[in-house]
Write a structure and sequence with these properties.
This is DUF4199 domain-containing protein. Keywords: Membrane, Transmembrane, Transmembrane helix. By secondary structure, the protein is mainly α. Helix content is 76%, strand content 0%. The chain starts with a helix and ends in a 5-residue tail after the last helix.
Length: 161
């Protein structure tokens, strides 16, 4: 547990940041009035997500490896961090779906049928629901975390002289 203390800390920070992002989206009307823009603007979450991942890897380098980290060590750390975030993500999705913005799914279902993205409400409901979002969120967190780590570690690793 001591070996992954930094990863656990940053996974919690990442999850809190994700919840704050959802509050921001809701306050900006992206889950209601401006739901048509949600599909595009929600992708801006990648910016703070990448920043948090890089900060976590730098923290691991500085405070666990005493400023010297190999690409492999950083990659392992990032994979562990991504797994923890993926494991927490169904909880954060539940909080988002049922506490922060319970109106999101009804709104996006209604709007996606109105604009013809789905032909029926049932088709839209099959896509826009907690279970689908929890699964997609966990898989997405894992994949994007590993990809971000793989790229970031090119720059963060200790270079040989």
């Amino acid at each position: 547990m001591k070996n992954i203390k930094i990863e656990i800390k940053w996974a919690v920070i990442f999850s809190i940041m994700g919840l704050l992002w959802m509050v921001l989206e809701k306050l900006c009307g992206l889950h209601s009035t401006y739901i048509d823009y949600h599909l595009y603007l929600t992708n801006l979450f990648a910016i703070p997500a990448i920043i948090i991942m890089v900060m976590a890897l730098k923290d691991k380098k500085k405070n666990f490896y005493n400023g010297q980290i190999t690409y492999k060590q950083g990659l392992i750390s990032g994979i562990i961090l991504s797994i923890i975030i993926a494991l927490i993500s169904p909880l954060t999705q539940w909080i988002t779906s049922y506490v922060i913005t319970p109106e999101y799914f009804p709104n996006v279902i209604k709007r996606s049928v109105e604009i013809g993205y789905y032909k029926t409400t049932e088709e839209a409901q099959a896509n826009f629901n907690y279970k689908n979002y929890a699964i997609q969120g966990a898989i997405g967190a894992l994949i994007m975390g590993i990809v971000t780590t793989a790229i970031a570690m090119i720059f963060i690793r200790t270079k040989k002289r």
